[in-house]
Design a protein that fits this description.
Shape of chain B: globular
Structural class of chain A: alpha/beta
Order of helices and strands of chain A: HEEEEHEEEHEEEEEHEH
CATH architecture of chain A: 3-Layer(aba) Sandwich
Helix content of chain A: 10-25%
Number of strands of chain A: 13
Radius of gyration of chain A: 18 Å
Largest sheet of chain B: 8 strands, mixed
Oligomer: heterodimer
Strand content of chain B: 15-25%
Largest interface: A-B, 40 and 52 residues
Radius of gyration of chain B: 18 Å
Mean pLDDT of chain A: 93
Largest sheet of chain A: 10 strands, mixed
Strand order of the largest sheet of chain A: 4-3-2-1-5-8-10-11-12-13
CATH superfamily of chain A: Glutaconate Coenzyme A-transferase
CATH class of chain A: Alpha Beta
Number of helices of chain B: 7
Low-confidence stretches of chain B: none
CATH architecture of the largest domain in chain B: 3-Layer(aba) Sandwich
Number of domains of chain B: 2
Strand content of chain A: 15-25%
Distance between the termini of chain B: 37 Å
Distance between the termini of chain A: 33 Å
Mean pLDDT of chain B: 97
């Protein structure tokens, strides 16, 4: 399990990003996991902690992916993939499900991102392309309603463009909503001063992260040591 | 005597009229009332406004209804899904209207419609392009202060088509797992709610404590003993009609 700490490694892979984020989910939390890397977070919650997963299509107590052949088309997650329900799970309708979100009953939501701005603005639903079919799902409800928003994302795009910016250029999902970002290179907190680096991935130095971040990056590790 | 059961899916949808607003339950294939949708295709009502979270997949169910040219407008949160080409192609060609609504706002607009509430305020979509034309306001109450909210209006419908797990003749319903999704709130928000179920039960068989949708919200029920499964039909390459 502890493959995060290995020598000669540079950065975190997708599973390790999920594993790193999982360490920051407290015992007893109600958590909603977005589609993609965030889905993996559930696999890495440290032992001894009990976390209840919410999926907005009507289930609290979402369990792992079923074994092949045991899928139930009427037991799925928000990504429409087959899941299981744990003992003690509860089903409910969409009105109640989004009351849990809008009413701030869900503690943490882990989402992917296209862009995050230094003031916590998030863009993760549309590139604004005129040819695209717009689709928003529950993303805007989650960022508006959930108390703490974690983002898991690659630090830069496939083309090497920064995703952590002074201002988002894509249409926003929400304003000032992001609390913490887990990338392949670092863990970064969004504070009222902007992006603050909390932790570097193995083999990564501060300058590398700074160069790949298109906004000011404060090194909080120094402040914390003082 | 109250008996909301009627003989066939054909009878169930016979009076859905051109231009009607129709809510259709389901989140992807979970809870999709395919047999009722196919009956609506056979019936042929046109220029419908359809409310569903998605726009269907493949060439069956909701996607087939759209492909058959019966839907003028979709109100949904996520019109793109795996195996979903019918709606995207028509939308790109400018042949179908889309009202894109955040999923929780869609659910609450439906719930509000069923509860007799014409509108409500929510923080969802504030600061985004989806709030551009909406009325904004703030509230002084401690629990809601310091944030902007937008006015969202209720949605009601002429008809709702939903799928239940069990139904008695009063219309009391239970659902199966995450197939419940939008069905209970859609049942509340339509003038005429039409239910398909695979389990017709006697009055009293569903414990009163376990009724999910009370029969007052239900108008017609039809038994579909072995409902088709959308993903299986798509895997077989089935198109309807």
């Amino acid at each position: 399990m502890n493959h995060i700490i290995e020598n000669k490694q540079t950065g975190w892979d997708r599973s390790q990003m999920a594993q790193r984020a999982a360490q920051d989910i407290p015992d007893g939390s109600y958590v909603n996991l977005g589609i993609g890397i965030p889905e993996q977070v559930a696999k890495y919650v440290p032992s001894g902690r009990e976390v209840i997963y919410h999926t907005e299509n009507g289930l609290l107590g979402m369990g792992p992916t079923p074994e092949v052949g045991c899928e139930d088309p009427e037991l799925i997650n928000a990504g429409k993939k087959a899941v299981t329900a744990i003992k003690g799970a509860a089903y409910f309708h969409h009105g109640d499900s989004f009351a849990m979100i809008r009413g701030q009953h869900i503690d943490i939501c882990v989402l992917g991102a296209m862009q995050v701005a230094q003031n916590g603005d998030l863009a993760n639903w549309s590139t604004g392309s005129k040819n695209a079919i717009p689709a928003v799902g529950g993303a805007m409800d989650l960022v508006a309603g959930v108390k703490t928003i974690f983002i898991i994302t690659q630090h830069v795009t496939k083309n090497g463009e920064p995703k952590l910016l002074e201002q988002c250029s894509f249409p926003l999902t929400g304003q000032g909503v992001v609390n913490r970002i887990y990338t392949d290179l670092a863990v970064i907190e969004v504070t009222n001063k902007g992006f603050e680096l909390l932790e570097l991935a193995p083999g990564v130095d501060f300058e590398t992260v700074k160069v790949k971040t298109a906004a000011n990056l404060i090194d909080s590790r120094l402040a914390n040591k003082e | 005597m109250i008996n909301k059961y009627i003989p066939s899916v054909k009878d169930a949808v016979v009076d859905i009229f051109d231009g009607a607003t129709v809510m259709i339950g389901g989140f992807g294939e979970a809870g999709s009332p395919i047999e009722l949708i196919h009956a609506l295709i056979d019936q042929g009502a046109k220029n419908l406004t359809v409310i569903n979270n998605n726009t269907g997949s493949g060439h069956v169910g909701l996607a087939a209804l759209i492909e058959n040219g019966q839907v003028g407008k979709m109100i949904c949160s996520f019109p793109r899904t795996a195996n979903s080409t019918v709606f995207p192609d028509l939308y790109t060609a400018g042949k179908i209207e889309l009202e894109l609504v955040p999923q929780g706002t869609l659910a609450e607009r439906i719930r509000a419609g069923g509860a007799g509430i014409p509108g409500f305020y929510t923080a969802t979509s504030v600061g985004t392009v989806l709030a551009d034309t909406k009325e904004h306001r703030t509230f002084d109450e401690a629990a809601f202060s310091g944030k902007q909210y937008v006015l969202e209006k209720a949605i009601t419908a002429d008809f709702s088509l939903i799928k239940a797990h069990q139904a008695d003749r009063y219309g009391n319903l239970t659902f199966n797992k995450t197939a419940r999704n939008f069905a209970p709130i859609m049942a509340m928000a339509a003038t005429t709610t039409i239910v398909q179920t695979s389990n017709q039960v006697e009055v009293g068989e569903i414990d009163a404590e376990h009724v999910i949708t009370p029969g007052i919200f239900v108008n017609r029920i039809v038994t579909v003993s072995n409902p088709m499964q959308e993903s299986k039909l798509i895997a077989k390459g089935v198109s309807y009609p």
